[in-house]
Design brief:
- The structure is a single chain.
- By secondary structure, the protein is α+β, with helices and mostly antiparallel strands.
- It is 36% helix and 14% strand.
């Protein structure tokens, strides 16, 4: 967990990040060699929390950590082009055919961040699951998997009770964020709270303008609103 990764400079400028903010975290719950990139303090805290969860019979595993701009852009473009399912607030797939650009943007943002504006860019935010209860390849990251009868129900209940002891919390919660509730998404608050106020929407506009992002004009026309609603409006611990 000592190897450093340089964040793409354009993305780093959005949050005032240093060039080498991330360290490699080796997963004990994936077949073969599998690593994720985390902000250094986040990695230490997560490792301690995973050990505590293991004592409770839970295999706390990561399925997504740091996500570079290019990866977020690929997710966005796949949804904007109809190549990847777009879900409504009830997690039901909807057809985007015939919808206005603004309507498609709003639908995508229910579950996916703007490229350059994802908390996953920071390395402080993780998507997690219980590797003893469901294989990562079967994981869909839907609320039913973390509800009362879902394979990750015990994990979610444990995180609700214990995550704050390690500095983690759920930033996307019902009625407290424009992004739909994500019981699999946890954030390391001590570092994340320092990064969010540094977010530079002018840098984001430049980054998106120079990208091959689909629906770019619709996003840029409402960028201030979209940042206020989908980046800055989040739950607090």
């Amino acid at each position: 967990m000592l190897t450093h990764l340089e964040i793409r400079p354009e993305t780093a400028r959005l949050y005032g990040l240093n060039a080498t903010e991330l360290v490699e975290y080796l997963s004990p719950y994936h077949h073969g060699y599998h690593s994720f990139w985390l902000e250094a303090n986040t990695a230490i805290a997560f490792n301690a929390m995973a050990q505590k969860a293991k004592d409770a019979g839970i295999a706390l595993a990561i399925c997504s950590a740091h996500r570079p701009f290019e990866r977020q852009l690929a997710i966005w473009n796949a949804k904007a082009s109809g190549k990847r399912a777009v879900l409504d607030a009830n997690e039901q797939a909807v057809s985007i055919k015939g919808l206005s650009d603004d309507a498609i943007v709003d639908l995508i943002l229910l579950w996916s961040a703007l490229p350059g504006a994802s908390r996953h860019h920071w390395g402080t935010d993780l998507d997690v699951f219980d590797a003893d209860q469901i294989d990562v390849k079967a994981l869909r990251l839907i609320e039913a998997e973390y509800g009362q009868t879902g394979p990750c129900a015990k994990l979610h209940a444990w995180l609700v009770e214990n995550a704050h002891d390690f500095g983690f919390y759920f930033p996307f919660q019902q009625g407290q964020s424009a992004v739909s509730p994500e019981p699999w998404h946890i954030s390391f608050f001590p570092v994340a709270q320092l990064l969010l106020p540094q977010f530079d929407r002018a840098e984001l506009a430049i980054l998106l303008e120079n990208s091959d992002m689909l629906l770019k004009d619709a996003v840029l026309a409402r960028l201030d609103y979209l940042v206020d609603e989908y980046v800055l409006r989040i739950a607090q611990p």
